[in-house]
Design a protein that fits this description.
The complex is a heterodimer of chains A (about 130) and B (about 375). Chain A is of the alpha+beta class and about 130 residues long. Helices cover about 25% and strands about 35% of the residues of chain A. Chain A has a single domain (about 5-105), classed as RNA polymerase II/Efflux pump adaptor protein, barrel-sandwich hybrid domain (OB fold (Dihydrolipoamide Acetyltransferase, E2P), Beta Barrel). Chain A contains four helices and nine strands, in the order E-E-E-H-E-E-E-E-E-H-H-E-H. In chain A, the strands form two sheets. Chain A has a six-stranded antiparallel sheet. Chain A has a three-stranded antiparallel sheet with strand order 4-6-7. Chain A is globular and about 35 Å long. Chain B has about 375 residues and is of the alpha+beta class. Among the domains of chain B are: about 55-140, Alpha-Beta Plaits (2-Layer Sandwich), CATH 3.30.70.1400; about 280-355, Elongation Factor Tu (Ef-tu), domain 3 (Beta Barrel). In chain B, the strands form four sheets. Chain B has a six-stranded mixed sheet with strand order 10-11-12-9-3-13. In chain B, strands 14-17-16-15-18-19 form a six-stranded antiparallel β-barrel. Chain B has a five-stranded antiparallel sheet with strand order 5-6-7-4-8, covered by helices on one side. In chain B, strand 10 (about 170-175) and strand 11 (about 180-185) form a beta hairpin. In chain B, helix 2 (about 35-45) crosses helix 7. Chain B starts with 8 loop residues before the first helix and ends in a 14-residue tail after the last strand. The relative contact order of chain B is 0.15. Classes of the chains: A alpha+beta (about 130), B alpha+beta (about 375). At the A-B interface, strand 6 of A face helix 2 of B.
């Protein structure tokens, strides 16, 4: 599996072959608070880099989930739709959102590595 | 304008509060455990809420004050007993609501608890209505602390002995140290609980004492989910200057004895609406599934006609599902009416339902 990369919209992404797994970061869940609703893209649909690919809602507000890369949705994590509190429990592990079959792997290049993201998250929080 | 802080601001900070601006004040939205934990803790144990941003208006006077206030509020104040409280409204001539409030008869006159965002304007309106005949004091030297939930009576009584003898919606002065605090058995969560008006210099120590006895600080986030589950209105959401108490389905708060003769501000409109019904009315709404419909969500019937709008919507932690309140045209206000909510461009099924979503646990008839 590839190194974990991060977007400015607080998504994480890993690549295995040409299939990317995408979720939201721990930092994002801490900003959102208790997540009580999750909506994911439809399997088989195509999503575009930086486009909306779902929604999460906390007790406070709704937030869009963006996809950091383009591709066809090949799998979604129904477990987090059924029990959205799983997202707060393990955001960067078992609570992944969806898997994409990527068209253009160079889209990964512009994303941040862990160190860059941590710095970005810290700055955007203050 | 500089953001205002309550006396307890430092205590909130040291308890890892996340702050938001609310009605010009820096207030805690939540602490480290989060809204759902805080909500559940209040329902099962005892939650402490800093509501010091709310207005505590003392108006001093005798029977002539009661007479003047009856020209303003739709209440039978002549028959309101000493230390008893009523929920009411400050209205304009069209019965539009300037604010909703709790008024308590005290020995020296009345104590009125006002919403933070409205208190200065309320003071101005009431000053104009009452003239200079009565002394009015919007008291900034007192904090207001609410303690809510089933363990609250035991915890508070161990600090202020005798509060367990209060009935719901009554109050009294109690000694705490060399100061007197005014304690009412009331609150806005649907749980048994109290609100304590205490001088600022005693407030922090008092709250620390409550925490030592097992109560926990709760933020505005959980206060909102708690009041929504209890079906209670929040000013600026369910209530505003374009809504009347009848439309807000709060006719119970209007004293029956005042309806025959009127004589209070807005009485004409209220009496007309009581007779003919209002065209829109506040209802409870339960979306099907897990979908949350927030404030301003449009409500439709099955012919694609808009029939109303959501005023508050969230996830109810004790209900374990989404809940909302909103206004619908009166023909859609019956319980179990099917309606559609437009969220992110798609229409989702929901049902009009009875309020509250969560059964209230008020304590009546202690003595």
């Amino acid at each position: 599996m590839s190194e974990v990369k991060f977007s400015k919209e607080h998504e994480w992404i890993t690549l295995e072959g040409d299939v990317a797994t995408i979720g939201i970061t721990k930092h994002a869940t801490e900003m959102l608070g208790d997540i009580v609703f999750a909506e994911l893209p439809e399997k088989g649909s195509n999503v575009e880099k930086d486009g909306t690919a779902g929604v999460v809602e906390s007790t406070k507000a709704a937030s869009d989930v963006y996809t950091p890369v383009s591709g066809e949705v090949v799998d979604i994590n129904q477990a987090i739709v059924d029990d959205p509190s799983k997202i707060n429990e393990d955001p960067e592990g078992s609570a992944w959102f969806f898997k994409l079959k990527m068209k253009d792997q160079s889209e990964m290049d512009s994303l941040m590595n862990k160190e860059e993201y941590d710095k970005f998250a810290k700055e955007s929080a203050s | 304008m500089e953001i205002k802080k309550t006396t307890l601001n430092k205590l909130h900070q040291s308890n890892n509060a996340k702050f938001v601006e609310f009605a010009g004040y820096e207030m805690p939205i939540q602490y480290s455990k989060g809204i759902i934990e805080e909500h559940k803790f209040t329902r099962s144990h005892s939650g402490i809420f800093d509501v010091s941003h709310m207005g505590q208006l003392f108006i001093y006077g005798d029977e002539s004050l009661t007479e003047e206030l009856e020209k303003i509020f739709p209440l039978d104040l002549k028959n309101l007993k000493l230390n008893c409280s009523k929920y009411s409204f400050l209205m304009n001539e069209d019965a539009g609501i300037y604010d909703d409030l709790i008024i308590t008869k005290i020995e020296e006159g009345y104590l009125i608890i006002l919403n933070a965002a409205c208190k200065d304007k309320d003071f101005e309106i009431l000053s104009n209505l009452l003239g200079s005949k009565f002394k009015m004091n919007l008291d900034n030297n007192r904090s207001l602390i609410a303690i809510q939930g089933p363990k609250s009576v035991e915890i508070l009584n161990s600090i202020i002995n005798g509060v367990d003898q209060l009935n719901f919606m009554t109050g009294n002065w109690f000694d705490s140290g060399n100061q007197k605090s005014f304690v009412t058995r009331s609150g806005y969560t649907g749980e048994d609980g109290f609100e304590i008006s205490i001088s600022n210099d005693k407030a922090e120590k008092f709250v620390e004492n409550l925490i030592e006895k097992g109560a926990q600080l709760i933020g505005l986030g959980a206060r909102d989910t708690l009041r929504l589950e209890a079906g209670l209105c929040l000013y600026g959401h369910e209530l505003d200057i374009n809504k009347t108490p009848v439309e807000a389905n709060l006719r119970w708060a209007i004293s029956k004895s005042r309806l025959s003769n009127g004589g209070f501000i807005g009485s004409k409109k209220i009496m007309n609406q009581m007779q003919d019904g209002a065209s829109q009315i506040r209802v409870g709404i339960k979306p099907e599934g897990r979908l949350i419909a927030r404030e301003k969500t449009k409500i439709f019937d099955d012919t694609d006609t808009q029939i109303g709008e959501i005023t508050s919507g969230t996830f109810g932690p004790s209900v374990n599902g989404p809940i909302a309140m909103g206004y619908v045209n009166k023909e859609f206000s019956k319980v179990d009416t099917k309606i559609l909510l437009e969220v992110r461009g798609k229409k989702h099924p929901a049902n009009v339902c009875a309020l509250p979503f969560y059964k209230k646990n008020y304590v009546k008839g202690v003595n």
